[in-house]
Design goal:
Length: about 140
């Protein structure tokens, strides 16, 4: 009889691109870690959904898989307010203002989010008690 808690049963995971982007971005702030969770029973095709981890949340087994969202994208660096300010101050064509800094940083973050959505990987290795197991990643619009 197959073990419905054995993640090696999984062949592909489907995940919404917005969940990946939101989770990656959330992990750039202070607070609990945000992951993409795959919940047993495991089957060949599974869904991964956004989840905020909490200590001691799983007492029984089988436990769900938690995938670091950064592993699902070939992520460019996250824009920081300091880097945006530096680029703005280095631009001889534009005068620095707080409002312009805010506008440029907002635009930089929006561009970063769009870049993440376009850079979802084709496969990822799941890891657990049975060792690494490669699965396909299907990004859902």
């Amino acid at each position: 009889m197959p073990d419905d808690g054995d993640y090696r049963t999984i062949r592909s995971i489907a995940v919404h691109t917005d969940d990946i982007v939101t989770a990656v971005e959330a992990n750039h702030t202070a607070g609990p870690r945000t992951v993409l969770r795959v919940t047993p029973p495991f089957t060949p095709r599974m869904r991964a959904r956004i989840h905020v981890e909490h200590e001691g949340e799983y007492a029984g087994g089988p436990a769900p898989l938690h995938i670091d969202p950064g592993r699902l994208v070939d992520a460019p660096p996250h824009p920081t307010p300091d880097a945006t300010e530096e680029r703005l101050r280095d631009d001889p064509e534009v005068e620095y203002t707080v409002e312009r800094h805010h506008e440029r940083h907002t635009a930089a973050v929006d561009e970063w989010r769009a870049a993440l959505a376009d850079r979802v990987v084709e496969s990822v290795e799941l890891d657990g008690d049975h060792g690494p197991h490669a699965v396909a990643v299907a990004a859902l619009g």
